[in-house]
Write a structure and sequence with these properties.
Chain lengths: 368, 127
């Protein structure tokens, strides 16, 4: 039985197509994916991402603990800074990819994928021994909205009344608000999963519902489902756990080494990554562009020009922002060089393609 | 709301056949194009290919997913609707005018196993 987010009734009232995702029943689209996709690229869209999981780690050893389980480096991080990275198994396979928010001295807020919540929390708790920390699983408390698009800053400031202009890319702050549970403290960050400027806002269910209603009633922000969340993140080359990352896919294979700080004294999985960097990996994640309009989908085979199976498509679409059929695929390293000719098997036919950068559309982040 | 056209034969998987003499025009129903959403690609067989009732002969793709096309009748493909190669969205605009393939029917008795418009309407309402 799937869980519902605190906005479930609102999605149904808006006529959303609802479908299971990551243990939740989530809105896939309200009108159609293409329209919602372009509204985020051109104006502003709001996503219910309350299915995401949250964990708070505090206490004397919090920084040391986070550095132990996380590939990025949070040592002496400034308050408000956010880091993207992974949690790894000892063999370098990925437990999950996540954001870590530095909220204060020895105070971290971790945001994990919905589908992995119970697995992650169990794994994180197993690693606590030897660390003096307080570990709070807060997924049931927090709702989360993602307001994304070039007009997001104006919408968040003017419709929600939350000051966010000063917030730099990948930073967060807390705000005391009068809404929600008769006043509460929310977290807002300049982050997202669309390749556009935007904000993610974490608050109680009551706050999340009130903020959602204001955004929808304003007419300045289109409700957007997980369908376009996937096409948006795919186009700008952002990975999705389960497609581009998994227990069998390390960050080195996925091309995410820049988020793994091998100069840190230690983290779980470090030795495996050092070895993978030194000896190479058998498979790598690449982009493939097809000449034809046929669409490569998750799980379809990638073939060499001679017809040998060399890998699998992880995500593919007919790209909405640039009119091309493209995919990300995990293929044998010897074929991973840019410009290499490959083929993709789509139903009964094979289609020629070429290995390209796995970013099909440029990000439009506001960095200052 | 979905439109239904009289005089066609419909399959449970939402394909239709419009019979003209020894030929059948095969497409997807208006109900099906509604359910799919924006069609972005139509994978069609080639002229002279054989299609078999109940078997896949191509696919219609929306942004999110590919749906197989199942042949409602058997026959030889004599024409494919080439307009769909460049404008797959024609299926969304008018699924009944924009047939996908034209076949020479090899066993017209197969038509009896398909639904008329009333039976097909009832089938859609059940879903």
């Amino acid at each position: 039985m799937e869980k519902k987010t605190c906005l479930y009734d609102r999605h149904v009232a808006l006529g959303a197509l609802m479908s299971p995702f990551g243990g939740f029943i989530m809105p896939i689209q309200y009108t159609n994916i293409t329209e919602e996709h372009h509204s985020v690229r051109q104006h502003c869209g709001v996503f219910d991402v309350s299915h995401m999981g949250e964990v708070r780690v505090t206490g004397p050893d919090a920084e040391r603990y986070v550095n132990h389980i996380f590939t990025n480096d949070v040592t002496a991080a400034p308050t408000g800074q956010i880091y993207y990275g992974m949690m790894l198994y000892a063999d370098g396979g990925t437990v999950d990819d996540l954001l870590v928010y530095k909220m204060g001295e020895n105070d971290f807020f971790l945001v994990i994928n919905a589908a992995n919540i119970s697995k992650d929390v169990a794994w994180m708790q197993q690693q606590i021994q030897g660390f003096d920390i307080r570990f709070e699983h807060q997924s049931d408390y927090y709702g989360q909205l993602a307001v994304q698009g070039p007009e997001a800053e104006a919408v968040v400031e003017e419709v929600l009344g939350l000051p966010c202009k000063e917030l730099k890319f990948y930073t967060a702050k807390t705000l005391d608000v009068a809404e929600g549970n008769e006043g509460e403290t929310i977290i807002i960050s300049r982050t997202g999963y669309t390749g556009e400027d935007g904000f993610e806002i974490y608050g109680s269910h009551a706050f999340t519902q009130q903020a959602w209603d204001k955004l929808i009633e304003s007419g300045r922000c289109k409700p957007c489902g997980l369908g376009c969340r996937d096409t948006l993140r795919f186009e700008v080359g952002l990975p999705l756990y389960g497609d581009e990352l998994g227990p069998e896919i390390s960050p080195v294979m996925a091309g995410l080494s820049m988020f793994c700080k091998l100069d840190k004294p230690e983290f779980i999985g470090k030795e495996a990554l050092v070895e993978q960097k030194a000896e190479g990996v058998p498979q790598k994640l690449v982009g493939i562009e097809l000449a034809d309009k046929a669409i490569p989908r998750h799980g379809y085979s990638v073939l060499s020009p001679e017809g040998e199976v060399i890998g699998e498509v992880t995500t593919g679409y007919h790209c909405l922002s640039v009119d091309k059929s493209v995919c990300m695929a995990l293929i044998k390293t010897e074929y991973a060089k840019l410009g290499t000719e490959v083929q993709v098997q789509i139903r009964k036919k094979t289609f020629p393609g070429v290995v390209v950068k796995k970013k099909f559309y440029d990000k439009h982040y506001k960095k200052n | 709301m979905a439109k239904f056209e009289e005089g066609l034969r419909y399959s449970e998987s939402h394909e239709y056949v419009r019979v003209e003499g020894e030929y059948g025009y095969i497409g997807i129903s208006d109900y099906a194009q509604h359910a799919l959403g924006n069609v972005v690609y139509v994978d069609m067989p080639e002229v002279d290919d054989e299609v078999t009732a109940g078997e896949e002969f191509g696919a219609v793709e929306s942004v999110k997913a590919a749906s197989d096309l199942i042949a409602p009748v058997s026959g030889t493909v004599v024409e494919v609707n080439e307009a769909l190669e460049d404008e797959p969205e024609l299926l969304n605009q008018d699924a009944f005018t924009n047939w996908i393939i034209k076949v020479q029917l090899s066993d017209p008795a197969e038509l009896d196993a398909l639904m008329d418009v009333e039976a097909y309407k009832a089938h859609c309402e059940e879903n």
